[in-house]
Amino acid sequence: GWPMAVAVPLTLLLGLLCGLVNAALIHYTGISPLVITLGTLYLYGGGALLLSGMAGATGYEGIGGFPDSFTAFANLTVFGLPIPLVLFAVITVFFWLITHRGRFGRHLFLIGQNPRAARYAALSVNGMPYALYGLVGVASAIAALVMVSYF
After folding, report:
1. This prediction's pTM
2. What three-state secondary structure class fits 121?
3. pLDDT of 53-112, one tens digit each?
4. What angle do CA 19, 22, 28 make, to 5 degrees?
């Protein structure tokens, strides 16, 4: 029942927060990122079902009841291309640019290859995953908004 101008930014902020929680869990527990992200996948999915009131359902029937202005978003086009495809292309190009053409990507690659050498090179070995998981959380929130607009 919230206005779209409030709900969409809050969704993006929630995606950022979920990404930062993943990074914090990985950082402070030392558990494999794969295990943490799979665990939080079920945590966040269960939380979404609980908040939507679908928790008592026997199976996943979907979350609905969105205003027409929101569901019409999925049917918009830009230059004849559907908005979800345009958003996918923009996000893909954005992540490609920051990982392959920017300092952020070089630092991320070095941390992934050898965290000890990255620490000696004065890179923020503990801070970089927070930025990365935060960006991925926002991208996931955008994907969720686009997917929900179809239903």
Report:
1. 0.79
2. coil
3. 665 555 555 566 667 777 777 778 888 888 888 888 999 999 999 989 988 889 989 988
4. 140
Collapsed DSSP state (helix, strand, coil) of residue 90: helix
Torsion over CA: 69, 72, 77, 82 (sign): positive
Q: How far apart are CA 75 and CA 133, in angstroms?
A: 30
Helix then strand then coil, in percent of the chain rounded to 5, is 75, 5, 25
How far is it, in rounded angstroms, from Cα 87 to Cα 39?
A: 27
From 51, 49, 48, select the one nearest 18 (Cα to Cα): 48
> CB count, 10 Å around CB of 92?
11
Query: Which residue's entry shows tokens 């239903």?
Result: 151
